[in-house]
Amino acid sequence: MFPVLLLLFIVVPIIEIALFVQLGGFLGLWPTIALVLVTAIVGASLVRSQGIATLMSVQSRLQQGELPAQQIVEGVMLAVAGVLLLTPGFMTDALGMMVLLPAPRAMLAKQLMSRVKVQNMGSGFSAGFGSQGFGSQGPFEQQDDPFRQRSSEGDVFDGEFERKDEQKENDTDRRLH
């Protein structure tokens, strides 16, 4: 985790600053600033249009009774692309545009989905990395659940009861004094 944070918060800004200096020296200050603003505006509008198209695709798949896993992954990737495009910098803009384009996004989504195991289990699903997911049981299932009925524990008796002594005390409290 530390190398990822180091990369995100130290290495990426250093590369972005170096690119700003290089491009600013070549184009000038104002064209460089204008280019950063234009990529942010264009990127935001493209993310919006692609996001709407992905949302419509998710709704269509759900209406057909299918699990729209790839569309959901692509939706998350569009959100990441939006963050990358709104972050000032040319390297993050290039990465955001790459994720924003439909063909690379679909290919990257398929790669991500091949690494994640999703099991459809009737009323829910469990997802995780590896062959067994996060465990051999569902994420909300506990090994020692006292309310889960086990056939090896014997018969279950269902009944009602009423305590007579509490009933008498409650009757005396109801009288007006």
Describe it.
- This protein is mainly α and 177 residues long.
- It has one domain.
- Helix content is 65%, strand content 7%.
- The protein has six helices and two strands.
- The protein has helices spanning 2-27, 29-63, 69-86, 90-100, 102-115, 164-174, and strands spanning 116-121, 124-129.
- The protein has a two-stranded antiparallel sheet with strand order 1-2.
- A hairpin with a 2-residue loop joins strand 1 (116-121) and strand 2 (124-129).
- Helix 2 (29-63) packs antiparallel against helix 3 (69-86).
- The longest helix has 35 residues, at 29-63.
- The termini are far apart.
- Residues 119-126 and 130-136 have low confidence and may be disordered.
- It comes from Photobacterium marinum.
- InterPro entries: FxsA (IPR007313).
- The chain crosses the membrane at residues 6-27, 34-56, 76-101.
- Pfam families: FxsA.
- Residues 160-177 have a biased composition (Basic and acidic residues).
